[in-house]
Hints:
Chain B: It comes from Paenibacillus plantiphilus. Chain B: Keywords: Membrane, Transmembrane, Transmembrane helix. The complex is a heterodimer. Chain A is an all-alpha fold. Chain A is 71% helix and 0% strand. In chain A, helix 13 packs across helix 14 and helix 13 packs parallel to helix 17. In chain B, helix 11 runs parallel beside helix 15 and helix 15 packs antiparallel against helix 16. Chain B is elongated, with a radius of gyration of 28 Å. The two termini of chain B are 30 Å apart. Classes of the chains: A mainly alpha, B mainly alpha. Chains A and B meet through helix 2, helix 10 and helix 14 of A and helix 2 and helix 16 of B.
Amino acid sequence: xxxxxxxxxxxxxxxxxxxxxxxxxxxxxxxxxxxxxxxxxxxxxxxxxxxxxxxxxxxxxxxxxxxxxxxxxxxxxxxxxxxxxxxxxxxxxxxxxxxxxxxxxxxxxxxxxxxxxxxxxxxxxxxxxxxxxxxxxxxxxxxxxxxxxxxxxxxxxxxxxxxxxxxxxxxxxxxxxxxxxxxxxxxxxxxxxxxxxxxxxxxxxxxxxxxxxxxxxxxxxxxxxxxxxxxxxxxxxxxxxxxxxxxxxxxxxxxxxxxxxxxxxxxxxxxxxxxxxxxxxxxxxxxxxxxxxxxxxxxxxxxxxxxxxxxxxxxxxxxxxxxxxxxxxxxxxxxxxxxxxxxxxxxxxxxxxxxxxxxxxxxxxxxxxxxxxxxxxxxxxxxxxxxxxxxxxxxxxxx
Amino acid sequence: xxxxxxxxxxxxxxxxxxxxxxxxxxxxxxxxxxxxxxxxxxxxxxxxxxxxxxxxxxxxxxxxxxxxxxxxxxxxxxxxxxxxxxxxxxxxxxxxxxxxxxxxxxxxxxxxxxxxxxxxxxxxxxxxxxxxxxxxxxxxxxxxxxxxxxxxxxxxxxxxxxxxxxxxxxxxxxxxxxxxxxxxxxxxxxxxxxxxxxxxxxxxxxxxxxxxxxxxxxxxxxxxxxxxxxxxxxxxxxxxxxxxxxxxxxxxxxxxxxxxxxxxxxxxxxxxxxxxxxxxxxxxxxxxxxxxxxxxxxxxxxxxxxxxxxxxxxxxxxxxxxxxxxxxxxxxxxxxxxxxxxxxxxxxxxxxxxxxxxxxxxxxxxxxxxxxxxxxxxx
Lengths: 399, 379
């Protein structure tokens, strides 16, 4: 245990890594605070969920309408033209509430117009899928439309949430904020893991370190230390960033809202999750997926370090690996299922955190089982890779 | 000289070269390829590009009232052609679409007409029906050109206002299509990213490499002694220039596939695009952005070398440069390369930024050299 601790210490006593960690964390905080001007307007969704319950039912809508009419009467009573501050707030709030009412009222109408099989067709045309790839895509969209029907039956999408248009809070949290967290953690993790793994060679202590009783088994401790360091780094950034986010934006009555809420409709298509999960569950799943990806990336960096034995190259080779995996599906002919298999990679996964578990995505990412298959497949690959590199290191010429 | 040559050879090891090629290939496919293989990006961009060439060959670098009348006439002639096309086409006549005007007013609810419209627009892609709206759009721009400058002038500060007045009195209005200009801006922005990353990648190990191998004890006790530091610095700068030049040649070689040379001698104030402080031609603007890339490359090379002689290990060396490179890519490059003479950026900002960056990086490396002269290398 001591050894792992001392290995971790190598990363955490590096002033540059600490500085980067603090820099990134403060950047995220700044990013969140600088967008907090819409906080006031966002309160309305929370209020509605608090007052009428998070689910949108006929009863609650009737109640809502009555209250709105009541407010309108109050509005008409104000005949003066020099409005007080409180009155102006009342006006904007009423206006927003009316907008939410209209949006909620329009859900069935808008959802009835969506035909997923047709959307699938246009996706197939857009990405020029043919042959077995087109068939796979068609099947998946048939499944999605079944899921969509199920959703319309059980009304899970009828829940209050921040209006996707114009606020786009889902994209802000899960794309912008999570994207920053992932990218920043990855940079620090790559540096830290390479630092720990190659430390002995860089500092010319390898002839001592690898001839002790522990010997070359020290590499296993280095792997454990890298994973531990990666955990600490990602947890630190995540806690600070998400802590700030939820302190700035109030979600108190919306934790139980559905992630597929119809109000959360940002762009052309609504968010349709393959599973009936709440916002809080989605948040936890996202964190777990990101964490699992970070662990897998750490082990990949560890293996690259062992093979390359040079920190400088390790970092850039990892960057190239990340980017190539991202580009991979683009190089594969769109006529076979191979193009989807190529999409099952960690780079694709972590580049689209707002599309986790969602069916309204594109390419392999829209498949129901995309996330867990990617993680499982890569766990197997990474375990094998780590095993091979550890084996290799046992007999490597380190002089 | 021989030592300099050897130092340059030490920078370009085959591994670094391989990494350089792979990194650039990745960045190319990730960010640059699109702006080359998708230019012009579908229709009506293609028509815009073609009409631009036609306008340049007809009207040259200056479009006066007469030219604009001529452009309008071309439009009207083409409307006649469209009318003839529609009238000679039985299907359209039957569907009650006899003139171009009818065609523009096609009712979306009318399935028969909509299908015909889709047929000639998307299936057959008849050129005139794509060109006409594009010409119409340009004519709208021609008609509102004074009003647009006026709107911008209203919200301007005194210096910008003076510049707008200057443009108005010179008769510089935006009349030519913007596709080429926009495409070049996207292209050069991404090329700047690739070159910045490449320079940092190549140059960072310059001083660190020998130091981490404990070669300094040997090197600094030769007759050349610590002067070697300057030779390594020179080697670094020469390599930077070499890498930037080589990459620019490759990337501009690809850019040549876009076939935009007809646009090169047109002053950039002619394009329907952002306004500028100065009136270079497109080619001069390109040269300016290239100069900017050289400058940025040299500044980042100097910084990389300073960090290289200061940082204790490779991880710290990469770590400290990450914020600088990311900040430059996300915030700096638009101002320092693509919007280098944009009127929205105060006139003094760009020259001041460059002077500041050059001053800081030069002072930094001088400081590092002074430090190196007295540094205790036996640790």
